[in-house]
Amino acid sequence: MFGVxxxxxxxxxxxxxxxxxxxxxxxxxxxxxEFMQSCPGKTVISGVxxxxxxxFFGLFMASMAYDVPVGNxxxxxxxxxxxxxxxxxxxxxxxRRSVSSAKNFGYIGMVYSGVECCIESxxxxxxxxxxxxxxxxxxxxxxxxxxxxxxxxxxxGFAAFSAAIDVYLESESRAPPANDYDE
Length: 183
What we know:
Blueprint lengths: L1 E6 L2 E6 L5 H17 L1 H26 L18 H41 L4 H16 L4 H26 L10
Antiparallel strand pairs: 1-2
Helix pairs in contact: 1-2, 2-3, 3-4, 4-5
């Protein structure tokens, strides 16, 4: 297997077997960074991160719903069942909600990140308008089946949320004020 090594000695093609361990590690790190900065890489990373966050969120929300009726019969509550059956139902519900939430968050993360990266690549700029556009397209795309009014509301909602996150993250990355004495 051949790799291209651009190290302190300049540009050159070396077979992987002739590279030192440091050169191989540098090449591997460079390839990983290139993947993470590409649109497919950002999309995959966002999808996986969204999946994990959604699973945690679903688990948390399921743990809050302990007093739900069992099945379609509203008379029978989970608290009236034996402990073992209660635990089985609760863990099944927690798993189901976690997986459902994880899929939704992962899907939204992938769509938003992919659209934003494509817009940023097309515009060749990194600014707030990329996030606004991606939020609008994502929100409209996710709610288009409910009709044009829902698509417009989804567009506005996702764009507003994206703008709020971008403004917050931009304020966090700015230099502190000159009179900041929190050293």
